[in-house]
Amino acid sequence: RQSADLLSFMPFVSFCREGCFSPISPEACPLVQSFMCHNRTFILDGHVQLKTGLQTQERHLFLFTDLLVVAKSKSHSHFKLKCQARLCEMWTAFCTEEVCEGSTDPERSFVLGWPTTNCVVNFRSAEQKETWLSFLQSRIREEKEKDYPKSIPLKIIAKDVGTCAYSKTLSVTNVDTANDVILMALQQLGINGSEKDYKLWVISGREDAPYPLIGHEYPFGIKMSHIRDAMPHGSKHCACPRQLQGSFLTEQLPQELQCQFVLKPSRLAVCQQLNDLSQKSFKRKRSIINWAFWRGPGTHLDNAPLSSTSAAPGKLFGLLLTAICEDDNLPKPLL
């Protein structure tokens, strides 16, 4: 594709796994046809690699004016739908090292995310990457401008901060990032620190366990995704249904559609607290090593009592900690 200005006049191009190009009109693609409607326009498509952690998947992206569709190529013209995301609930970022393992070419990749998902999108060329980034950022911005409502109440629960758990309800807009919400919560709760000292975790009925946000995500979009999924079938696919008010903006949702936001010290902050406590021999604490690897089930992740014994005290994977640590630091692969 030569330039963003010419994209709308170019034919639909499907990139097959073998690397050959086959011109196919969008009308001939059943998947594209299934998403077309009077208020939605098809913009562009492209073959990409999606990377999360150690996993790499070959995928095909279809961008519409209000929607991104992720599909798996089955043939030159047939695709299997894998997921779809509303652009008003999406984000872009460049912290690729936070999302996937291994090296990625920053000239051909960036982070793309939507509620509960962050992935690195790897393109065939720097030009294709810039085209997609420009279109996505422009469309996300325009869809957020049309979004309704523009702000919602968001309850933040503070845990492992001080001696007890407490909460505050903040007014969060659709352009506030997770780091913005952390700073607002710290101010409202009267807690000293910065966004580097704390993480905002999400407990979602869709997930098996809590997960931390990196910082660039939109908590507004995450909660609104849960709320929209609770709407009646005829309106939940609408970008800004006017029924989104009253009880739908509170916690009165089915358990599987609820999401909670929990503010907790980041790992670095917790490690520093543990180091501070290490001088006080009368206090029992969880070691930095055990804290990094201990995981509790479900939402009881941080409420389980500390155990005074373990199956192999002082050992990790059967090896002495002194044998695998240098200067009291875990090896990088384990971290």
Automatic annotation (TrEMBL):
Molecular function via GO: GTPase activator activity
SUPFAM superfamilies tied to this protein: PH domain-like, Ubiquitin-like
Record InterPro entries: ARHGAP20_PH, ARHGAP20_RA, PH-like_dom_sf, PH_domain, RA_dom, Ubiquitin-like_domsf
A Gene Ontology biological process term: signal transduction
Cross-referenced Pfam families: RA, RHG20_PH
Positions of the Ras-associating domain: 150-268
PANTHER family: RHO GTPASE-ACTIVATING PROTEIN 20, T-CELL ACTIVATION RHO GTPASE ACTIVATING PROTEIN-RELATED
Record protein name field: Rho GTPase-activating protein 20
